[in-house]
Amino acid sequence: MKLLYISGPFSDPDPIHGIERNITRASEIALEAWRKGWAVICPHKNTSGFQHTEIPWETWMEGDIEIVRRCDAILMIPGWLNSRGAMLERMEARNAGKLVPVYDRRSGIPFADEVLR
To answer: Hey, which CATH number is domain 3-114, 3.40.50.10140, 3.40.50.1100, 3.40.50.10400, 3.40.50.720?
Structure first.
């Protein structure tokens, strides 16, 4: 089974609804990817609620980058261009020679068996 990393915004300037909205969006897309044959890593779900800890942003990114290195592909979800973390994840995926499908409503998520490695 191929492993897909979901990359997109977590933080948001809206302190009331922003982060929860981003987690929900990533979760919906992750579920869609599971239906297309991927094993999915969705860091939004993995760290939900952890934004209130003393752990610095750089530590989260170091861990996320390590996970990206171990995945077969990365999927950029809406809003990624406005996310410093997602930009770094995409750059690492490109540097590691990963296939980087870009999610949008027109092209959708590829089936896992369509992605060659």
So the answer is: 3.40.50.10400
pLDDT in tens, 32-88: 999 999 999 999 877 766 666 778 889 989 999 999 999 988 999 988 899 999 999
- Spatial CA neighbour of 83 closest among 40, 34, 43: 43
For the whole model, what pTM was predicted? Answer: 0.86
